[in-house]
């Protein structure tokens, strides 16, 4: 089982980092929606950093939880139309 957890944590980290790289803010920065998009991106980046910290401290359970939670924040922003994503991506539930 630990090998499965490590593999899944590695996979989620990679997918989440790729998703962050693909998602572009789609609303004007100087609006309340722009503020919301910036806050969601900041939360997602924070969870990516937290997950990487947990991995470095040999805590894959919390690393996976952080990657999953941050990915959920980002995906919710995409669903709300705050971010644009490439049409051909497989990294979000909207595709």
Description:
The structure is a single chain. Helix content is 69%, strand content 4%. The radius of gyration is 14 Å and the shape is elongated. With 95 residues, the protein is mostly helical.
Give keywords.
4% strand; two-stranded antiparallel sheet; 95 residues; mainly alpha
Can you tell me the overall shape? Answer: elongated
Please report the total strand number as a whole number: 2
Major sheet details = 2 strands, antiparallel
Distance between the termini: 31 Å
Number of helices: 3
Give helix % range: 55-70%
Which H/E pattern describes the elements? HEHHE
Read across the widest sheet, the strand sequence of neighbours is 1-2
Rg for CA atoms: 14 Å
Mean pLDDT: 92
Please mark out the parts with pLDDT under 50 across 5 or more consecutive residues, or reply none: none
Strand content: under 5%
Structural class: mainly alpha
Which helices and strands occur, and which strands form pairs?
Blueprint: H1 2-22, E1 24-25, H2 32-56, H3 60-79, E2 83-84
Antiparallel strand pairs: 1-2
Helix pairs in contact: 1-2, 1-3, 2-3
Task: Describe, in short, the structure shown.
This protein has 95 residues and is mainly alpha-helical. The chain has helices at 2-22, 32-56, 60-79, and strands spanning 24-25, 83-84.
């Amino acid at each position: 089982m630990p090998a499965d957890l490590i593999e899944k944590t590695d996979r989620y980290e990679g997918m989440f980092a790729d998703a962050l790289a693909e998602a572009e803010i789609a609303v004007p920065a100087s609006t309340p929606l722009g503020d919301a998009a910036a806050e969601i991106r900041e939360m997602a980046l924070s969870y990516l950093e937290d997950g990487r910290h947990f991995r470095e401290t040999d805590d894959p359970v919390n690393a996976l939880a952080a990657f999953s939670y941050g990915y959920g924040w980002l995906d919710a922003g995409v669903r709300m139309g705050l971010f644009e994503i490439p049409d051909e991506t497989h990294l979000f539930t909207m595709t």
